Amino acid sequence: MTIVTAVGGVLARVEPQRGDGDPAWLAEARRAALGWVGEHGFPTSKDEDWKYTGLGPILAVPFEAATAGSGRLVSPDEIDEIAVDLGGPRLVFVNGHFAAELSRLTGLPDGAEVTNLASVLAAGPERLEPFFSHTPGEHHAFAAFNDVLAEDGAFVHLTAGTSVDEPIQFVFFSNTSGFELMSSPRSVILAEAGSRATIVETYAGIDGDVYCTNAVTEAVLGDGARIEHYKVQDEPVTSFHLALLDVRQGRNSRFSSRSVMLGASIARHEVRVLFEDVGAEVSLDGVYLPQGEQLHDNTIFVDHAAADCTSHQLYKGVLDGRGHGVFNGHIMVRPGADGTDANQNNKNLILSDRAEVDTRPRLEIYTDDVKCTHGAAVGQLDEEALLYLRARGLPLEEARGLLIYAFVHEMVDRIELEPLRTQLEALVAARFADGDHPVEP
Amino acid sequence: MMLKIEELHANIEDKEILRGVNLELNAGEVHAIMGPNGSGKSTLASVLIGREGYEVSGSVTYEGQDLLALSPEDRAAAGVFLAFQHPVEIPGVGNMYFMRTALNSLRRQRGQEELDPVDFLALAQERMTLVEMDQSFMNRSVNEGFSGGEKKRNEILQMAILEPKLAILDETDSGLDIDALRVVANGVNALRSEGRAMLVITHHQRLLDYIVPDRVHVMAAGQIVRSGDKDLAVELEEHGYADQGRPTPVGVTR
């Protein structure tokens, strides 16, 4: 299939659904985004940021846009199983659309608004205008498609000084009943000066369903705001997952993102961070564990556009089977961004000679007074450590499982939410343990 | 007899390192193997626990079984233990968890019930006193950031917890100051028993002041060239290894 027909095919399917009830600015933004895709097409391997992530398998599926109510009924138990209940507010989406009966929006302090995007669009859509007004230069086709198709998602607004103690959960569950659906959740986190919250996004679905999640989450942090963001991507291997986390940070704000990638056939987790003012900090961590035929792509862009900001990245991958990992990390230090402290590190453990990892840490520096480091490592299991464990009586498979677990443990250990950490420890351990005696954390 | 090594040869990349080792070891005995660097002492230890990469011939019979046919974990389950010359650091795996997993793995393979964390902790605390280690070691990653002496004590602690029948100590004294050496030796001595045999590999006679062996073997160029009682170690300390490669002439007493 050529790019032109792929774009044409997707456009033909999505275009008729647009327009009804959108305010003029939104209709215009959607038209512009669609026009951009029509003009630029989908990214190809010639595109720097998509060099190792082929989109052919996604474009070959005639996805239709998921509409509200397109999933069968989902039970609260199903949700609890995929996303451990953290006790705080919980927004549940099925195929990208809000499921009020599965959600819980109680227990919020004054100054914290947690709702779904469609409600905001219905009640006061002008608040959303800043989030749909990217310049086309920042687009890539999937982010643009999210602009075109997004109808719902999570919406969190914290007024100045508001602190939410309980983690706020977004659960994106797909159940497409055999239909080939593309869901396009769009979430917005608006944290005004001095506010604080923890956000946990979980993506999952039903094994065997062929669908595509094309999610965009935008976080805007005011001066001194602090947001901790977690993401668990555990979609079935029959699905595709494309996501953009777009972060803009004000003066002295702090953002952290911890991502665990387990599922999907092709998964891409893209994080873009823009330091808009001085003294801000970001910490981005991720684990990716492709096996079988999975491809896991982490693409990171940190834009040091202001002075005295700090960014840390640590991504670790374990690649098994024919699994393919991509780390594409780009740090930009703009002229005038003196006092920048930036580092990025990518470590990979390859378990199979058919697995592949492409790692590309990049620094682009246009000022002198900076402290920047980057590194990438690709290795295999330490034979000496394996022998040590076996000589103490651990069977080979168990010894391997323990060493793999130890490699990723550092990342899981950084998860400060205890119930979430316990859930992920179990998920990760189960993935590498032999059947009879799972490796305990 | 617990261990019988006959005409053991080991090559690595066409280089012959063991050139016909013969050794017999009974339960309850402690034998020392001494010899200069490169004489094959550590290779012997490696071959006995099943390190890969060697081309091995000859035979090793352990409690009536062909030891060379077993995987490293099966040798461990059968009661063979090596205190490593260079204990491996394993970041991310807690020392306590590691030892409990190892013990339970052995117990499982022997058809014994596994110990839960509480029972294991009690056992570990009791054994830690043998090597004067405190709880803080157990809460760290395996050997990570341990000093040389701490690593060696950690090896002896594992031996105390896993209770092997045949313990091989590979250069356990290397890099230890006199206090650490005393602690390690005391731990080893406390573990001497009628049912347990030990093979103590060392470069220095010093260790054998603390761990007094029943027999001393001298290894040179891949063979055991002399054997004797503990006084042989003293003699070696005085005269060195220089002339140990040559066969002893008949009628000469050294």
Amino-to-carboxy terminus distance of chain B: 29 Å
Q: Beta-strand percentage of chain A?
A: 35-45%
> Within the CATH hierarchy, at the fold level, what is the topology of chain B?
Rossmann fold
Low-confidence stretches of chain A: 1-5, 435-441
Please, how many helices of chain B? 9
Largest interface: A-B, 25 and 31 residues
Q: Treating each run of at least 4 consecutive H or I residues as one helix, how many helices of chain A?
A: 9
How many domains of chain A? The number is 2
Number of strands of chain B: 12
What is the structural class of chain A? alpha/beta
Q: Give the distance, in angstroms, between the N- and C-terminal Cα atoms of chain A.
A: 46 Å
Average residue-wise pLDDT of chain B:
91
Q: What class would the helix/strand composition of chain B place it in? A: alpha/beta
Structure at a glance:
Chain A has 441 residues and is an alpha/beta fold. Chain A folds into 2 domains: 3-277, no CATH class; 381-441, no CATH class.
Topology:
The complex is a heterodimer of chains A (441) and B (254).
Chain A (H helix, E strand, L loop, with lengths): L2 H12 L9 H17 L15 H4 L4 E2 L10 H7 L7 E5 L2 E2 L13 E5 H7 L17 H9 L4 E5 L9 E7 L6 E3 L2 E6 L4 E10 L5 E11 L4 E9 L5 E10 L4 E8 L4 E10 L5 E8 L6 E10 L5 E10 L4 E10 L6 E11 L5 E10 L4 E10 L3 H9 L4 H18 L4 H15 L9
Parallel strand pairs in A: 1-7, 2-6, 5-8, 6-9, 7-10, 8-10, 9-11, 10-12, 11-13, 12-14, 13-15, 14-16, 15-17, 16-18, 17-19, 18-20, 19-21
Antiparallel strand pairs in A: 2-3, 4-5
Chain B lengths: L2 E10 L2 E11 L4 E5 L6 H9 L5 E8 L2 E2 L5 H6 L2 E4 L6 E5 H15 L7 H12 L6 H4 L2 E2 L5 H15 L3 E5 L7 H13 L6 E6 L3 H5 L4 E6 L2 E6 L2 H9 L15
Helix pairs in contact in B: 6-7
